[in-house]
Amino acid sequence: MRRLTARLNRRNVQPLALASATAVVLAACSAGGKADSSSDMAADGGKNGGPAAILVEPSTESQKVPVSRKVTVRAQSGSLVSVEVISPGPGKLSGTWSEDKSVWTSSTQLAPGATYTVNAKGKASDGSALTETTSFTTAAAENTFVGTYNPDKGAKVGVAMPVSITFNKPIHDKAAVERKLKVTSSPVVEGAWSWMKDRDGKDRVDYRPKEFWKPGTKVTLRMDLAGVDAGNAVYGTQQRVVNFTIGDAVTSTVDVAKKTMTVAKNGKTLRALKVSTGKKDFETWNGTMVVLGKVPSIRMNSATVGIFGPEAYDMKAVKWDVQLTPSGTYAHAAPWNDGKFGRVNSSHGCIGMSTADAKWFYDQVHLGDPVTVVNSTDTVAANNGYGAWNVDWKTWKKGTALD
Predict the structure, then answer these.
(1) Which of 141, 73, 59, 143 lies closest to 105 in space, CA to CA?
(2) pTM value?
(3) What is the pLDDT of residues 359-398, one digit of tens each?
(4) Which residues are catalytic?
(5) Which of the following CATH numbers is that of domain 144-247: 3.30.70.940, 2.60.40.3710, 3.30.43.10, 2.60.120.380?
């Protein structure tokens, strides 16, 4: 049975702030109080005769720095050797040097809602080394976006689980956002991002490996989106590192013609269950679906999927429900079809089985496990749950926003 979206139409955290490094003047003596303003620093040229030190504006004490502010780094009683100003989201700032290399001034505008770290090295007039590391945070933008990501940190998921991020605002500059998303794994695999519209019209990007993950793989998603402009002055706020692990390879194959579902674990067949799938005009989706979640009991009302009249149903306590698509495909107990399992396909698109078999299947599968349907019609779309596996690898890679 379908619960969420009409099958009849199928034809058609708070941002995680980076830890700020405290400002430390690594010199023989203190800088002697608050640093000069950036304009005074630049004008002075670093030759005011004070104690040897590297002075940075905005300083660590600065809060909600306006994005119009310049970053100025000055070597007092000395010269600069290198300056790096970087934020994980927006990246590095460019800058210009004074003629005597005693002052560095940023030339790239700051991004809103971002934490910048300044790493500077220099040389005092007596030849001793100077170093300074400090950080500051810019004022947040009025218009921001965030991405809801799956899977969660610390999760153990099935071999077919992609990394999926759905954004709450339109992403006009998809390339800028994609550059700040990174997935790594151990062991290393070939993988790619691909953009799509979620079923509710929101921008979404999924990452999948070329083939299913191997059991035991450790995966890390990094989202360095704080201060990233998604276009039309809408800025990201998130800094996330999300680690998850791939569990056992629990794979299920539903043969609509044979009316069976064969379940295997790590390549070894566990059981072949008798099932009843979608009848004519309500055929179960063909292709690979991915387990989205499961609940022990749920109400299934045909009105929620646009089915009325003679085909209408309202089942108030359907047991052992494994959800496969947001459009309403489930594998579940269907005791009202007793006698049809393995013989007749008579559901409205779901995969029905006996209560005992449904409980067993419910206990075997978890988020991210693949369920592949063969010998049916109409392949499930990539955005209908995690249908990425129904897109060939060459086509999938074309969904990137990067060249």
Answers:
(1) 73
(2) 0.80
(3) 999 999 999 999 999 999 999 999 999 999 999 999 999 9
(4) 332, 350
(5) 2.60.40.3710
